[in-house]
Amino acid sequence: MENTGKYALVTGATSGIGLELAKLFVKDGYNLVITARDLTELHETASLLQKPGIEIVIIPKDLFDREQAFSLYAEIKQRDIEIDVLVNNAGQGVYGKFDQTDIDRELQIIDLNIGSLVILTKCFLTDMVARNSGKILNLASIASKVPGPWQAVYHGTKAFVLSFTEGIREELRETGVTVTALLPGVTDTDFFNKADMQDSKAVQDESSKADPADVASDGYKALMAGDDKVISGLKNKLQMAMSAVTPDSISAKQMNEQQKPVDKDDL
Known about the structure:
Organism: Dyadobacter linearis
InterPro entries: NAD(P)-bd_dom_sf, SDR_fam
Order of helices and strands: EHEHEHEHEHEHHEHH
Protein name: Oxidoreductase
Family: Belongs to the short-chain dehydrogenases/reductases (SDR) family.
Helix content: 40-55%
GO molecular function, one term: oxidoreductase activity
CATH superfamily: NAD(P)-binding Rossmann-like Domain
Strand content: 5-15%
Distance between the termini: 56 Å
Shape: globular
Structural class: alpha/beta
Strand order of the largest sheet: 3-2-1-4-5-6-7
Radius of gyration: 18 Å
Mean pLDDT: 89
Largest sheet: 7 strands, parallel
């Protein structure tokens, strides 16, 4: 395998869409910097990804803590690694009615989904603009396009990610740097377990969950093409087309029906 000499940084790289994206970078000869909270999982992931001639750098960081996002950038700079592609994949949600969920957990999710993403984008984008080259992929979601009863904070954070990505993309139009948003739908990852969301109607049908490898492939192609955004999956594209002409109040009601617990139809 020919090494391109380029480095991609993937956050939340030990499972799901992040892992599948990491595999695609390795396949194309990129060196990798992977980060997640669990050092053991990072070592296991590095072993899984390792190919002859490819460097896999592991840096454990807890991006629920904004300061660790700054320290991740500092450590990469200290190692004299130039990041050619940044993938802000790490993200999490929490399930339940907002008046009943844990505010501390939700604030941590905001720090992860928004705070650390903005910090890493700011730090690495500054370097990319200075050399007039680089690519960034931000994980948004189809949740970014519709109100989200039972996941109000998560939907809100993803709406921020999409708007933020589209805003800075326009600022960068005259540069050699591109920023792309990936909008997956329900995907077969550990997201729903972490969000305590297994009782939701939206995740009961296993056959409706997208393969994370397919989602990653859609995102990777869009990233490399320099596209502004990509909605992964035909069903999700159709859903987003419908939501674009549906009043938000109706979309919220529809989403409530999709996401409420299966045993609470009377709520």
